[in-house]
Amino acid sequence: MKINLVVFAGVKEVLGWERLEIALTAPATVADLKRQLLLTYPEITDLMAHCVISVDQEYSDDSTVLEEGCEVGVIPPVSGG
Amino acid sequence: MKINLVVFAGVKEVLGWERLEIALTAPATVADLKRQLLLTYPEITDLMAHCVISVDQEYSDDSTVLEEGCEVGVIPPVSGG
Amino acid sequence: MIKLTEQPIQAQEALDAIADCNAGANLLFVGTTRQWTGEQETRELKYECYQEMALKQMQQLHDQAMEKWPLLGVCMIHRLGSVPVGETSIAVAVSSAHRQPAFQAGPWLIDRLKQVVPVWKQEINQQGDSSWVHPVNPGATS
Amino acid sequence: MIKLTEQPIQAQEALDAIADCNAGANLLFVGTTRQWTGEQETRELKYECYQEMALKQMQQLHDQAMEKWPLLGVCMIHRLGSVPVGETSIAVAVSSAHRQPAFQAGPWLIDRLKQVVPVWKQEINQQGDSSWVHPVNPGATS
User: Fold this and answer.
1) Per-residue buried b or exposed e for B17-34, using 16+ beta carbons within 10 Å of the residue's own CB
2) What is the pTM of this model?
3) pLDDT tens digit string along D18-43?
4) DSSP output for D61-83
5) Residue ranges, chain A, pLDDT below 70
6) Do A33 and A51 form a contact (C-beta atoms < 8 A)?
7) CATH class label, A2-75
8) Across the interface, which of C24, C30, C106 has its CB nearest the CB of D32?
9) Do A77 and D56 touch (CB under 8 A)?
10) Among candidates D37, D17, D35, which has minimal Cα distance to D27?
11) In the predicted model, what is the mean pLDDT of chain D?
12) Contact A81 D118 (CB under 8 A)
C-alpha cells in the first residue's frame, strides 16, 4: 500500500524534501513505518528520537495501524507561540 | 482644629453633600471622628458600619491620629473594575 | 501607565503602554459591562471615584507588581461616568520577558484593584432604576 | 476563531472575535518576538507549520476550553513566516461572564498550544545565523 509522508523543520532540512509517497507492505503500523524510515534514511536517526508521528493530522503511537492513502507526518518537538 | 471631610457613593447621596470642613477638638483619632460623625449624622449609621476611613488618601485605622487640615475620606466598599 | 478617564478606553492604548522589545509576553485584561446577570438586565454602569486616592492606590499597585514580578510594563486604565453594555470599564495590561510573571501579575492586579482602589459603580437597569453595587452584592462586570 | 496568517496580527481582531454582550471579562495574551534572551540578540523569528494539523489541533483546544470552562468566546491566531522583534507571533483571547474562567483558560490555552500545535520556529540572530528552537532549547518568545 502507499502512504503520503510529510516532514518538517529540521527533518525536512536534512532530507531536502517535504512530501513523498512511500510504499509499505500491508498491514503496517506506525512502528513498522519508523523502522523502514530509519533503514532508508539513517541520517535522521538522531532527529527521529525526538519526533512523534501523526496519522491523518492526529497524534498516533507505535501501535496505530496505517491505511492505504493516509497522510503520515514526522513531527519534531513543536515550538509555536 | 479643622479637617476636610469627603464622602462618596451612598453616603454622599444620604448626606446630600460631598465635601465639608469639620471642627474637631485636638488631639483626635479616626475613632474620635467616627463617634462625632455618628452623633451628628445618625442617618448614616448603617452605611458607616461598612465604611473605612482614609486619611490624606491612605487607608487608616481607628488609632490613626488626625492632623490640622488633613483630608479624611469615608470610603464605602469599593466596586471598581 | 495609570489613568482615569471619562472617554472610551482603547485596548491598543494599554498594549502600547506596556510594549517593550524585551517582552515576549503581553497580557491584557479588559472588563466590560455585561448585559445579563442571571435574570437581571443591565443598561449601563456608572462609575464614580475618589480621584486623588484612586490614582495613588493604582500607582501603589503598579509599584508593588513591579517589585513582586520581573515585569517590563504595567498599565491600568479605569473609565469613569457611564459605561454602556459592551463597553470597557477597566483595562489592565502587563508585559514580561516570559509568560509566567504576566499570568501571575494580571489577575493579582485586577483582584487588588477591586479590593483597594476607591471606585464605586452604580448599576442602571432597563427600567432606569439605579443601585450601588457592593462586593457583597456583585454587579454586572467581571 | 482559529487562524494561521502570514500577515501582522492586530490585537483588536482577537478582541473583536471574542466580544460578547454577556462577557464581563476579556483576556488577551499576545506573544511577541523578544530582542534579548540572556546575551543572545534576536533579529527575527521564522515560523513554519503543518497547516492542516495545526488548524485541527487549535480547533480541538478551542473546543476543549469551551467544555472545561463557561467561556463565551475563544480566539487563537498564529502568525507564520518572519516575525521581527516587537511583532506578534501569537494572540490568544478568551471571554467569560466573570473573570475567573478567562484567567484559567488563557494560560491553559497557550500552554497547550505550545505542547501540541505543530508549529516550529527558527531563531535568526544579528549575524543572520538561524537555528531551530526546541522546547529543550527555549527561544526568543514567551
Assistant:
1) eeeeeeebeeebbbebbb
2) 0.95
3) 999 999 999 999 999 999 988 889 99
4) HHHHHHHHS-EEEEEEEEE-EEE
5) none
6) no
7) alpha beta
8) C24
9) no
10) D17
11) 94
12) no
Beta bridge pairs of residue B3: B22
Instruction: Name residue C71's beta-bridge partners.
Output: C96
Interface of D with A (CB under 8 A): 31, 47-50, 52-54, 56-57, 78, 89-90, 110, 113-122, 132-136, 139, 141-142
Residue D104: Cβ within 10 Å count:
18
- How many residues are there in chain A? 81
Query: How is the beta sheet containing A2-7 ordered, strand by strand?
Result: A19-23, A2-7, A71-75, A52-55, A58-59
Block residue for cell numbers 447621596: B13
Instruction: Note the pLDDT of residue C35.
Output: 95
C13 pLDDT more than 70: yes
Domains of chain C by start residue, with CATH:
2-7+22-131 (3.90.1170.40)
Contact C99 D31 (CB under 8 A): yes
